[in-house]
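Working notes for the structural subgroup meeting. M.R. asked for a predicted model of this chain before we commit to crystallization trials. I am recording the input and output together here so anyone reviewing the notebook later can reproduce the run.

Input as submitted:
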Amino acid sequence: SLDLAVFISQKGESYFHKRYPQCKTAVFRLGAIGNGITIKSNDSIVRVLTCSTVYTLKRVSLILESLKNATALNIEWTHIGDGIDLEKLKKRAKILEEERYKINLIGKCTHFEVIDYYKSHKVDLFINLSMNEGIPVSIMEAISFDIPIVATDVGCTSEIVTEMSGVLVDANPTIEQIVDAIYFALSHKYHPHKFWEQNYDASINYAAFAKFLTSLRND
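Returned structure, recorded in token form:
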């Protein structure tokens, strides 16, 4: 009985349309507000950022183990977010820091603080290894700052992580696959900010949706 079903991803629309072909559908993407471009490292350090709740679904511990095995790189890893597994992560991180790693577990931040981090710190790579996703706004924000991505091919992540913005790994990747993806992402030239401008600029996407809603009202 719907007049229209609106989706924020192409996959979502396709999934629905196969089951309810009689229903009219449309796609209007989410997005991130532009706040400039993050500075890249100009020394021997590769600065990796992750941003999520720390619990099983997000596999933050797998990120830690993968970075540990990227032995060809001098990595500084920063994680923003807290959760039920944060204390376990801190214990493991402390052991690694005693070896050769620089790890910053910042914990919970407001959205303003997250954006400010992007604006005031160097970031070379953003990683998301979630078991499941919808279509992550955290990745939209990262590409808006021109940061390449390594992410699992789950949910609708493949609509954000493309040849222009980064590398996808399997939904259940091995550490070796993740490490290879990290090396690959850092050795290739991507254009995540350009991809964001074309597809996930909130100022464009939200205005287009508002205009569309207004047209429905007028009709």
